[in-house]
Design goal:
alpha/beta, binds zinc ion, binds magnesium ion, 10-stranded mixed β-sheet, Alkaline Phosphatase, subunit A
Length: 354
């Protein structure tokens, strides 16, 4: 009798265990990936937000931190084209190449790969949409300066939401083609004035091409364009339950470095940090989104050598080969710690979502 009672107890216990165990053992995978790139943003550039931003810094919210080596296949010091291609295609190439190997062979990029998995994709930048970093996520050309060709490739790409400058590459072209009209024919709702026409309609694709060339600089009044466009693109892309991939770039951190302009640089880093905050706010609520933030390379050997903008120093006016920080938050973030190469980001993303 005692044995029967014990058996029943054990049976009840084992039933209870089998109900709980499977959920606990299942490793959580992110559905969505938000990849944010501060162009030219080394550790000193990131640090500047901690010293000069009023209010809390969003970089502080990341749980997992690493370092990446930014070199190309053949050069220690990269440019944004080779670095963007390494991120987007998972292979290192040489400078100036967009979505092509060292042998000038087109390589599949991450937005194409994820579109084949039913993802929606978006790109939000403060440069022209045809600049090197964004174009590495949709284009394939041997020279980053083939802007008209890149505008065509963007039109015919899998990108669902695009925001940035670059109107001249669409309407003021050597071949006379009205590429904006072609974008409308390809299903884009095109706006060249402001973000205000956005109505979050998943039957449309969106193209906000809001400046003739690049978006204005922060010190010249760009306002909250980058965090706002980041939030809008997330609102739109997240309606797709199969997942989304969004690339957001703080494009002008690099340009301020090239010009050794501390005020421009620091205001761009702070603006980028605000956009990072929008991504993290969504990821915290959503629970299925991986947010990764890094740089394509460091620019200008920037140094926080004083308390004021005027005291800051730069070692040079070009890129450096310094490793750059890598921040990750959300399911799968633990895969992005330690020291790794720029080209490994692609494989890590595909590994954590599948
Ligand atoms: Mg760039
Ligand atoms: Zn640069």
């Amino acid at each position: 009798m005692k044995n029967i009672f014990l058996s029943i107890c054990l049976l009840a216990l084992s039933c209870a265990c089998t109900q709980v165990a499977p959920q606990k053992s299942k490793e959580k995978k992110p559905v969505n990936v938000i990849f944010m790139i501060g162009d030219g943003m080394g550790l000193a550039q990131v640090s500047s937000a901690f010293y000069f931003k009023d209010g809390s810094v969003n970089f502080k919210r990341f749980s997992e931190i690493g370092l990446i080596n930014t070199s190309t296949a053949v050069e220690k010091i990269t440019d944004s084209a080779a670095a963007g291609t390494a991120f987007s295609c998972g292979e290192r190439t040489r400078k100036k190449m967009i979505g092509m190997s060292v042998d000038t062979i087109s390589m599949p990029n991450i937005t194409d790969t994820l579109t084949s998995l039913n993802y929606k994709t978006g790109i939000v930048v403060t440069s022209s949409v045809t600049d090197a970093t964004p174009s590495a996520f949709y284009g394939h050309v041997p020279s980053r300066y083939q802007y008209e060709k890149l505008a065509e490739q963007l039109t015919n790409s899998n990108i669902d939401f695009i925001a940035g400058g670059g109107l001249n590459c669409f309407v003021n072209r050597n071949d006379g083609v009205n590429q904006l009209q072609k974008m409308e024919e390809a299903g884009f709702a095109v706006d060249t004035v402001s973000l205000e026409s956005f109505d979050c309609n998943t039957d449309k694709k969106y193209a906000f091409i809001l400046a003739e060339d690049n978006m204005p600089k922060m010190p010249e009044g760009r306002g909250d364009y980058l965090p706002t466009a980041t939030q809008m693109s997330i609102e739109y892309l997240s309606k797709n339950k199969d997942g989304f991939f969004l690339m957001v770039e703080g494009s002008q951190i690099d340009w301020a470095g090239h010009r050794n302009n501390a005020e421009h640089l620091i205001t761009e880093v702070i603006d980028f940090d605000d956009a990072v905050g929008k991504a993290l706010d969504f990821a915290e609520k959503d629970g299925n989104t991986l947010v990764i933030v890094t740089a394509d390379h460091e620019t200008a050997g920037f140094a926080l050598s004083g308390d004021k903008y005027e005291d800051i120093s730069f070692a040079l006016t070009n890129h450096t080969a310094s490793m750059v920080p890598f921040f990750a938050y959300g399911p799968g973030a633990e895969n992005f710690t330690g020291i790794f190469d720029n080209k490994d980001v692609y494989k890590k993303i595909l590994k954590v979502i599948q």
